[in-house]
Amino acid sequence: IQLFYNIDLEKTIQRLWNKEITVEEAQIEIALKSDDWIIRQSKLFEGKLKNE
Length: 52
Prior knowledge:
The protein is mostly helical and about 50 residues long. It has helices at about 10-15, 25-50. The protein is elongated and about 45 Å long.
């Protein structure tokens, strides 16, 4: 399962389904994965701009 920006959520959702984590913990994991993706993409974008 992926959001539009290619974040793998399958493990988080499986852990939630298995009741290994709470909904709140799953939300935090997803938010952190989203933040990490945004940071990586912005660094890639900055690198592309510097090379032009």
